[in-house]
Amino acid sequence: MLINYCPECAGRMVERIVETRARPVCSRCGFIFYQGPKLAVATVVVEDGKLLLNKRDVEPQKGLWSFPSGYVDLGEAVEDAAIRETREETGLEIHLNGLVGVYSRPERSIVLVVFAGTASGGEIVVGNETQDVRMFDLDDLPKLAFEHDQDIIRDWRSSGL
Ligand SMILES: [Zn+2]
User: Fold this and answer.
1) Which of 13, 35, 40, 134 sits in a 20 to 30 Å window from 3, CA-based?
2) Phi–psi pair at 11, nearest 5 degrees
3) pLDDT digits over 87-117, tens only?
4) How far apart are the CA of 37 and the centre of ligand 1, in A?
5) Which of 161, 146, 137 is nearest to 49 (CA)?
6) CATH number for the domain whose boundaries are 38-159
């Protein structure tokens, strides 16, 4: 990410080594711009042995199936983001049962927090950024969008959630 001006004082940013990494630092006020990963959430919602998936209508992996997911907004609790994204993409209201896991890789800029949930209301409506929404038999899943999707299903199965 390129940042030319300080968000604190609009001074020129320069690159300096801070705590072993090159980071943008303000040449005027010394503000250090720490770049962190983006936080995203996903939900594993299972009903009668069927898993809720949506067909992605956005890149990356547009047209492939994955869990309801999205970014956590600033000022939003991670749990609330998981419930909101599931509602926006699938029409279902859920309550959360617990944490399945946290998924990240050094080469990716996203940290994904995954919760298990149970539908508590609403009905399936194909929502934003989605081509289709369906419940799939856990033993007969379509090709999933992301490498970590299989890890998530494995971790969900062993979690007992
Ligand atoms: Zn500054």
Assistant:
1) 40
2) -70, 170
3) 999 999 999 999 999 999 988 899 999 999 9
4) 22
5) 137
6) 3.90.79.10
Predicted confidence at residue 10, as pLDDT, reads 96
Q: Is the pTM of this model over 0.85?
A: yes
| Domains of the chain by residue range | 1-35, 38-159
C-alpha 144 to ligand 1 mean position (Å):
45
Distance CA 134, CA 54 (A): 6
Question: Ligand 1 centroid to 3 CA: how many Å?
Answer: 12
Residue 158 Cα to ligand 1 middle (Å): 49
Tell me which fold the domain 1-35 belongs to.
Answer: Ubiquitin Ligase Nedd4; Chain: W; (2.20.70)
**How many angstroms separate the CA atoms of 94 and 109, rounded?**
27
Residue 161 Cα to ligand 1 midpoint, Å, equals 47
d(CA 134, CA 153): 16
Rounded average pLDDT over 115-122: 96
| Cβ pair 103, 114 in contact under 8 A | yes
Q: What is the mean pLDDT of the chain?
A: 94
Q: 32 C-alpha vs ligand 1 centroid, how far in Å? A: 8
